[in-house]
Amino acid sequence: MGLFALLSGALAEDRPLNHPSKYLYGFTGQSVAFLGSEDIRYGFGVGLGFGKPEHRFRFRTLPAQLVYEGYVDRTTSRFAYTRVRSTWAVGGLVYSRWFWPQDKQGRSMYGDFGWGLQYTTATSRDLDITLNSTPMIGFGGIFPGGRRDYLIGLRLLHISNGGVKKPNQGQNQFFLTIGIRY
Fold first, then answer.
1. Which ranges in the chain belong to alpha helices (H)?
2. Which fold has domain 2-181?
3. Whole-number Å distance between alpha carbons of 137 and 157
4. Which of 61-65, 92-96, 163-167 has the lowest mean pLDDT?
5. What is the DSSP letter of 135?
6. C-alpha to C-alpha distance for 126 and 140, rounded to whole angstroms
7. Burial tier of 151 (Cβ tally within 10 Å: 0-12, 13-18, 19+)
8. Which terminal CB of the chain, N or C, has fewer other CB atoms within 10 Å?
9. How far apart are CA 75 and CA 39, in angstroms?
């Protein structure tokens, strides 16, 4: 029995950073006024994801995952104008996640780059339609915690109609993400 536990622990420690994973996230943040954005919005949300190793996305020595993520968020504008101030959004992202080597304590870093779609319950000052494109970039740290890892990161989500309707101001949202990987 003791030998089995010892071997199980050794196997868990040796598992690669890009092993098949499930993610649970919480995030909070705000939009920033650049690249056409005018409507400063504050928000929060939750997301669920699934990552699988993807060797074709490997960058030099950095292993990668292909991650599928769904999320729900709520944002509120700080401006008072005739449109709805608070909106709900549902989105999906597909992105590559690269992992940097672990230090002696098992900590690591990750970088994300991907794209998705988002549906909002109402238009806003910067978003003239309810279905928008969402290119995304992010990075953060991974901290081991036994059978799961804890992630803390920053994410930039550009929300835009992709030029389908003019004007196409778009919105740039920065989020602090806190997650669990298991």
1. 2-14
2. Porin (2.40.160)
3. 7
4. 163-167
5. -
6. 28
7. buried
8. N
9. 11
Structure tokens at 84: 């709805």
Q: Which residues contact 100 (CB under 8 A, 6 or more apart)?
A: 62, 108, 109, 110, 111
Q: What is the pLDDT of residue 46?
A: 98
Token representation of residue 106: 């098992």
Q: What is the DSSP letter of 57?
A: G
pLDDT category at 38 given cuts 50, 70, 90 is confident
Q: Phi first, then psi: what are they for 9, rounded to 5°?
A: -65, -40
Q: How far apart (Å, rounded) are the C-alpha atoms in residues 24 and 180? A: 5
Q: Which of 94, 101, 93 is nearest to 18 (CA)?
A: 101
Residue 74 CB contacts under 8 Å (≥ 6 apart), including other chains: 43, 44, 45, 86, 87, 88, 89
Residue identified by tokens 């992992």 is 99
Q: Residue 137 corresponds to which tokens in the numbers above?
A: 């970039």
Q: What is the pLDDT of residue 82?
A: 56
Own/partner long-range contacts of 5-12 (Cβ < 8 Å, ≥24 apart) = 12/147
Residue spans of the domains in the chain: they are 2-181
Percent of the chain with pLDDT over 70: 88
Structure tokens at 150: 């804890």
